[in-house]
Amino acid sequence: MLAIRIHETGGPERLTVEEVPIPEAGPGQVLIRVAATGVNFVEVYHRQGLYPRALPFIPGGELAGTIEKLGAGVQDLKVGDRVATASGTGGYAQFALAPAEQVVSVPASISLETAAALILQGLTAHYLAVSTFALKAGDTALVHAAAGGVGLLLTQIAKRKGARVLATVSTTEKADLARKAGADHVILYTQTDFAAEVEQLTGKRAVDVVYDGVGQTTFARGLGLLRPRGMMVLFGQSSGPVAAFDPLLLSRNGSLFVTRPTLGDYTQTRGELLSRTDDLFSWVADGLSVRIDRTFPLAQARAAHSCLESRASMGKILLLP
To answer: What domain range is 220 assigned to?
Structure first.
């Protein structure tokens, strides 16, 4: 099969197209013929070596396709099933493995490309808005990078929960997308100080939760916007890692909470995973929009990474093996 492998960490040029053996499904695993693979910042972090992995490796964990083979002991799934997973191994390839417990069936009404675009970022947006800080009517949420894959879904889910959404974006085109997703106020952080504008909109220290996938350039000012006992939800670091800080700062600013959640901790059981995907698939049927910004052939993985890192994307980037 064709696959993208990384032998050395570094820039997008480290993504090489190779022919490798099709992997074998072990006990509890399924082999999936990949229809589409999501491109995410976690693979950028793996490629850069920020999140170390043993070399060489095939990146990619978010994918959708059809089951090609079942490993020993796998039940409730069969060859030919349309499935998606956010926990695959080697998704930048024509075939990939996944633990059967982390694979979900895709309804016939949803395309495999849509499922690949939804499964990781949709699950992320779901746990952020439903569990990490359970939004309710009347809450005010600040969503950074609101025109990205997670941001657009998170904004829509937050509005379903009745929250007020303040969204930050970098361009007027992205601002239009955030408004279409339901954002109440959109702030172009390239043209104005987002913290000052948020304070004008809400008053000082009136934000209940900040959803921050940007990190270094937004974290400190976001803390200053939170109400007493408000929560900073740091779920990514597209601008770089957050600098160390004295936890006493949280006390001085109103007994604030800071959390750095990961999807694995919010899908610890199959029941929890299915509960979240059931919500997502039903919301898609009810109008939740999954925006696929652009697709690339597998061999153009370098271009896909460059596009993601440039922050030029508005929605999801997919690789199509």
So the answer is: 137-259
Concatenated DSSP letters for 257-318? EEE---GGGG--SHHHHHHHHHHHHHHHHTT----EEEEEEGGGHHHHHHHHHTT--SSEEE
**CATH number of the CATH domain containing 150:** 3.40.50.720
- Closest-CA residue to 86 (of 274, 228, 287): 274
Looking at 243, 259, 275, the residue that finishes a domain is: 259
Using an 8 Å Cβ cutoff, are 156 and 183 in contact? no
Q: How do residues 94-142 score in pLDDT, each as one tens digit? A: 999 999 999 999 999 999 999 999 999 999 999 999 999 999 999 999 9
Q: Distance between CA 36 and CA 297 in Å, rounded?
A: 10
d(CA 256, CA 267): 26
189-239 residue pLDDT tens: 989 999 999 999 998 999 999 999 987 888 899 999 999 999 999 998 777
238-265 CB burial, b ≥16 within 10 A, e <16: bbeebeeeeeeebeebeebebeebebee
Question: What is the value of pTM for the model shown?
Answer: 0.91
> How big is the chain, counted in residues?
321
Domain count, the chain: 2
d(CA 243, CA 246): 10
